[in-house]
Amino acid sequence: MPYSLHQTITSPAISKQPASTPLFGHKVEAGFPSPADDYIEGRLSLDEHLIQHREATFFVRAKGNSMVEAGIFDGDLLVVDRSLTPTSGDIVIAVIDTDLTVKRLIKRDGLIILKPGNPDFKEIVLKEGQELQVWGVVTSTTKKFV
Amino acid sequence: MPIALVDCNNFYVSCERVFNPKLEGKPVVVLSNNDGCAVARSNEVKEMGIKMGTPWFKMKDIAKRHGIIALSSNYALYGDMSARVMSILSTFSPKQEIYSIDECFLDLGGFDPQSLVAYGQTIRKTVKQNVGIPVCVGIADTKTLAKLANHCAKKGFAGADSVCDFGLLNEAELRILFASIPVGDVWGVGRQITEKLLTMNINTIQDLRAANTERIRKQFSVVLGLTQQELNGIPCIELDGAGTARQQIMVSRSFGTSVTSIADLAESVAYFATRAAEKLRHDGSVAASVCISLRTNPFKEDEPQYQRSLVVPLSQPSDDTTKLIGAALAGLKAIYRSGFHYKKTGVMLMGLQPKTAIQATLFDDPIEQAKSDSLMHVMDAINQKMGKGSVTTAASGINQRWAMRRESKSPDYTTDWGELPEAS
Fold first, then answer.
1. CA atoms of B135 and B122, how far apart (whole Å)
2. Nearest of B229, B52, B129, B355 to residue A53 by alpha carbon
3. Is A5 in Cβ contact with B315 (below 8 Å)?
4. Which of A16, A88, A103, A122 is catalytic?
5. Which of the residues A3, A11, A68 would you substitute to probe the B interface, choosing the one with the greatest number of B C-beta atoms within 10 Å?
6. Cβ pairs A/B, distance under 8 A
7. What SS3 class is residue B104?
């Protein structure tokens, strides 16, 4: 969320209201604790679901339609984990000609190929001795409709 | 007991390069607020002999000739990348002291002394892969020596490949190495001290090591006496202890008992910000942004874990306690999650510059300067007459007027949904 500078500077007072008190808060009135108390574990978090390594995870915006067959469309949000070691078949962010590109990594017959998910786009086959610079592995994508 | 100093290489430039591969291999400088002077340089720029702190207007010509790319500083980006690096580094040791935005000490006591270089390489590899930032690791028995070992690691001295462990050198080898490094490269030995040392014929680090401790203490200070002992392998500055040079101001504490409510956290954060602001004014500096961090106890593995930090940039560098508290509390509010037992919070002031430099660079035009001074008077008058509530509106208007000159700032790649890196 972008920060409003003015707000941060001009409102030093902080709400005395506790933010929320959802956990472990069941009142015991009738002598029996709520059977649900044992099961309260906090709400589901999309962050936890989508992010395995928080410090190594970055968000990247997909541009263009070179990966539509993989379900990645222009403007989609890509969750990228840099800590993962890329293997053949992974969708990766790679550096090609100093630009970031999203493609499927294929290792075949000793060749390294960046394969687009769209027949209109050409495969990028790395020349012998050319090193592929993988920026990170795309672990998921999200799309907002509203 | 071995200590490692892990230091990011050309940190601000490296942060920019992670998201903008076009900068790789090119000469890049990052300029301070208001695009005043160089606060970070790529190796290519260092090789051109451009010194840290060189004002931009003085290097414009050479920059044009050599195609130097100048970027405005992006503290939101550097702060987030720093938090990531520090968090990863914290997993390599039970004890970490974050010394500045781009360096920290790690306690490596109890590790196999023979395998520390390999461990250092693992640290390097992990940080580089996970966040894309290159680091160097210096390992030695004292903090001062670890700093020096890091210097050697960066320069490739003693056959070091970005990791240097003094523990693997014997006394004769150390002596030869230290005799080749000027005394001014020692942590905490500034220019004035260096000049005086040179007149006493103490030119190299080895000279300082061999000097008479009593004489050093008497002619200089107790602190330089400690530095000398540290150079001889006697630990005098504890991990977590006070540093000598000041690049960032960090105030943080671990709580005796864990804290859960935001009200309690806010109290400590406000206190830390106040302490940090005092240090800032004592140094005659202003800060460009405030980094607030909090975490649970990572060693209580059965408890849910949470740690987060956030950089809140100020619209204008400041040493004003209320502004710094305001920014710190806004940051706390943004990163606080209920339901966790917090063990530690911290406030770090970043982007420090001398207050005088700021006033000089903010307004090039003397008429503008006079106008702004009178604006300040008006603001103070309103403040006095009508109470604190009025200041906020006055201040926000003035802040817009004074919006920082950051002409070529990179996008906030990691802190703004609208500015994410793109991949085609």
1. 11
2. B129
3. yes
4. A103
5. A3
6. 132
7. strand
Catalytic residue among A34, A66, A88, A140: A66
- DSSP letter string over B39-75? EEE-HHHHHTTPPTT-BHHHHHHHHHHHT-EEEE--H
CA-based nearest distance A109→chain B, Å: 26
- Bridge-based pairing state of the strands B3-8 and A91-96: unpaired
Interface with B, mutate which of A14, A16, A141 (most B CBs under 10 A): A14
H/E stretch holding B7 reads strand B3-8
- Gap between the Cα atoms of A95 and B421, Å rounded: 12
Of B323, B396, B423, the CB nearest to A93: B423
pLDDT digits (tens), chain B, 424 positions: 899 999 999 999 999 999 999 999 999 999 986 677 898 999 999 999 998 888 888 888 888 999 999 999 898 899 899 999 999 999 999 888 888 889 999 999 999 999 999 999 999 999 999 999 999 999 999 999 999 999 999 999 888 899 999 999 999 999 999 999 999 999 988 888 999 999 999 999 999 999 999 999 999 988 899 999 999 999 988 876 433 335 678 887 777 778 888 888 888 888 888 888 888 887 778 888 898 989 888 778 788 888 888 888 887 888 888 888 889 999 999 899 998 999 888 899 988 877 776 554 443 444 544 554 455 445 445 545 554 333 332 322 333 223 344 668 899 999 899 999 999 9
Which residues of chain B have a CB within 8 Å of the CB of A102? 423-424
Closest CB from B21, B327, B332 relative to A9: B327
Give the ipTM of the model, two decimals please. Answer: 0.75
Q: Does B132 touch chain A (CB under 8 A)?
A: yes
> B247, exposed or middle or buried, with CB in 10 Å at 0-12, 13-18, 19+?
middle
A66 is catalytic: yes
Residue A143 annotated in active site: no
Distances (CA, A) of A13 to A17, B188, B261, B389: 12, 39, 16, 12
Grouping H, G, I as helix, E, B as strand and the rest as coil, residue A100 is strand
Which is it for strands A91-96 and A133-142: parallel, antiparallel or unpaired?
antiparallel
d(CA B381, CA A106): 69
Q: How far apart are CA A17 and CA B263, in angstroms?
A: 8
What is the helix (H) or strand (E) element at residue B125, kind and residue range?
A: helix B116-131
Chain B hits for A22, CB-CB cut-off 8 Å, are: 338-339
pTM confidence score: 0.71
Nearest CA in chain A to B339: A23
Tokens of A74: 């222009």
Partners of B22 on chain A (C-beta within 8 Å) are 98-99
Candidates A58, A131, A135: best to mutate against B (most CBs of B within 10 A) is A58
How far apart CA B391 and CA B394 sit, in angstroms, is: 5
> 3-state DSSP: chain B helix, strand, coil percent, rounded to 5?
50, 20, 30
Q: Judge: A20–B263 Cβ closer than 8 Å, yes or no.
A: no
